[in-house]
Amino acid sequence: MNFFSCAYALLTAVFVKRFISTRWLHHSDLFTVNLLTAATAAAGAVGSVAMWGNKPSGWFAVCRLYRIYCDKGAVSLVLAFIAFAALGVSASLSRYPRAPPPDSTTK
């Protein structure tokens, strides 16, 4: 999901001048932010089980055995939260741009 969010952000950054006059940019930004939020929450849940385990269901904590796995997972979660915050700011800026979109009806 992070790859697709990054690709979407790069594409909209490249073609922002063309897309600024359309209304769907804000909606697609919000959709991407929501997908990234869900993916980050799921990764956090998996990381929590890996770190602390879950005795009633029989899942044991694996971070004591595989420390490198948990360290890479923690870095990944931090980067995912940074991406979530950046896309959230981008979504709010796409809703309220600095300059009004060009009026296509007047020529």
Automatic annotation (TrEMBL):
<keyword id="KW-1003">Cell membrane</keyword>
<keyword id="KW-1133">Transmembrane helix</keyword>
<feature type="transmembrane region" description="Helical">
    <location>
        <begin position="32"/>
        <end position="53"/>
    </location>
</feature>
<comment type="similarity">
    <text>Belongs to the Casparian strip membrane proteins (CASP) family.</text>
</comment>
<dbReference type="InterPro" id="IPR006702">
    <property type="entry name" value="CASP_dom"/>
</dbReference>
<dbReference type="InterPro" id="IPR006459">
    <property type="entry name" value="CASP/CASPL"/>
</dbReference>
<keyword id="KW-0472">Membrane</keyword>
<comment type="subunit">
    <text>Homodimer and heterodimers.</text>
</comment>
<protein>
    <recommendedName>
        <fullName>CASP-like protein</fullName>
    </recommendedName>
</protein>
<keyword id="KW-0812">Transmembrane</keyword>
<feature type="domain" description="Casparian strip membrane protein">
    <location>
        <begin position="4"/>
        <end position="86"/>
    </location>
</feature>
<dbReference type="Pfam" id="PF04535">
    <property type="entry name" value="CASP_dom"/>
</dbReference>
<dbReference type="GO" id="GO:0005886">
    <property type="term" value="C:plasma membrane"/>
</dbReference>
<feature type="transmembrane region" description="Helical">
    <location>
        <begin position="74"/>
        <end position="93"/>
    </location>
</feature>
